[in-house]
Amino acid sequence: MNNFTFYAPTFFAFGKDTENDAGAYVKRFGGTKVLIHYGGGSVVRSGLLDRVKASLDREAIPYVLLGGVQPNPKSDLVYTGIDLCKKESVDFLLAVGGGSTIDSAKAISMGALYDGDFWDFYSGKKIERALPVATVLTIAAAGSEGSTNTVITHKGFKRGTGSDVLRPKFSILNPALTQTLPPYQTACGITDIMAHLYERYLTRTTDVEVTDRMIEALLLTMIHEAPRVIADPNCYEARANIMWAGMMAHNNSCGVGRTQDWNSHSIEHELSAMYDCAHGAGLAVTMPAVFTYVMHRDVMRFAQIAVRVWGCEMDFANPENTARAGIEALRKFLISIGMPQSFAELGAKEEDIPHMVDVLCNGNGRPGYIDGFVRLYPEDCEKIYRLMI
After folding, report:
1. Contact 171, 135 (CB under 8 A)
2. Is the distance from CB of 108 to CB of 152 less than 8 angstroms?
3. 74 three-class SS
4. Angle CA(257)–CA(261)–CA(263) in degrees, nearest 5?
5. Alpha-carbon distance 31 to 22, whole Å?
């Protein structure tokens, strides 16, 4: 296990009706004027936005509103939010929605205290300060409610950044708020959670049994709960387990002391940036292709997760058979919950592969490759994309 530091101070309020206390928590954490950032649609129709506003009114905390966040959040709204925060002297951001809304709020929080272009932070500039952010979560998926991370799309580039200053001050997690999600969105969220776990499991660091076992336990939880929630969207118990697993999967408690991968995410980002497909759907197609391509870096690691998580039988004479069986089990599981399995289902086109590879490996200052469990050069990335066709 490698040396590490780990600081994860987010306060979590978990359970039914906890959104009604949002105003009290903003006051507790020092907010005096709030930007409520949200998407629209169900947040408005369900009355959630009104309940959050009412909670702020009870604490006499003024607020301004900025809706309109879309999946794969774009920089245009971030710039609008930065200007609004500066104009209105906002000192606290409250994201009401899913990972896209939270990521957008984190981007605004950095830009509101910066004289330059917020995109500098997604291009390698160190993040030193940001306005405090908090969340009211409406979908279990991205894990941004407990993480240091944020991903934004800007001029065709979908890139991420992160810092401890971006961890939410508090996050309200009411599983009941996710019960109205369509099965497809629920399945996309489950896929994203599982990807966050796999990206940490694929490590070059040895002797990391504690975090290996934590990741395996969370994957087993997803395998158990996903069919239950797809069959019964109103199953609060399944929603609750998935929601907490989603946070645990990405606050990095499972990733400390070990190298991590993230190549599947990088490769998928080009798909959702170009075609605006759901991130989880893109990962469902991407992960099996990436894993098949990089499996030979450490066949026994893939065989281990196949046995421990997917219940595959260990082929000691040929561990590659076990490794492949585990990858196939993942692929079939994702299909079983309604996820796509090919380029065509994402709306992706074979003729766009060269462009995606170039942006992936060379765009926005990248060094001509992406690095993780295995360093992947353009020719590798092209082969991986072609495995998805």
Report:
1. yes
2. no
3. strand
4. 160
5. 11
pLDDT tens, N- to C-terminus, the chain (389 residues): 999 999 999 999 999 999 999 999 999 999 999 999 999 888 999 999 999 999 999 999 999 999 999 999 999 999 999 999 999 999 999 999 999 999 999 999 999 999 999 999 999 999 999 999 999 999 999 999 999 999 999 999 999 999 999 999 999 999 999 999 999 999 999 999 999 999 999 999 999 999 999 999 999 999 999 999 999 999 999 999 999 999 999 999 999 999 999 999 999 999 999 999 999 999 999 999 999 999 999 999 999 999 999 999 999 999 999 999 999 999 999 999 999 999 999 999 999 999 999 999 999 999 999 999 999 999 999 999 999 99
Percentages (nearest 5) of helix, strand, coil residues in the chain: 55, 10, 35
CB contact set of 21 (below 8 Å; sequence gap of 6+) = 13, 55, 172
Distance of alpha carbon 152 from alpha carbon 69, whole angstroms: 11
Cβ distance 226 to 193 under 8 Å?
A: no
- Residue listed under structure tokens 């490996």: 361
Q: How many CB atoms lie within 10 A of CB 228?
A: 15
Beta strand pairing status for 133-137 and 170-173? parallel
> Tokens representing 13?
């309020």
Distance CA 386, CA 292 (A): 12
Find how far residue 17's CA is from the centre of its chain: 24
CA dist 260 → 3, 177, 192, 293, 343 (Å): 14, 32, 16, 17, 26
Interhelix angle for 183-201 vs 279-294, to 10°?
30
Q: Which long-range contacts (CB under 8 A, 24 or more apart) does 298-306 make?
A: 298/204, 298/373, 299/323, 301/201, 301/202, 301/203, 302/326, 302/327, 304/212, 305/198, 305/201, 305/216, 305/219
190, 104 contact by CB (below 8 A): no
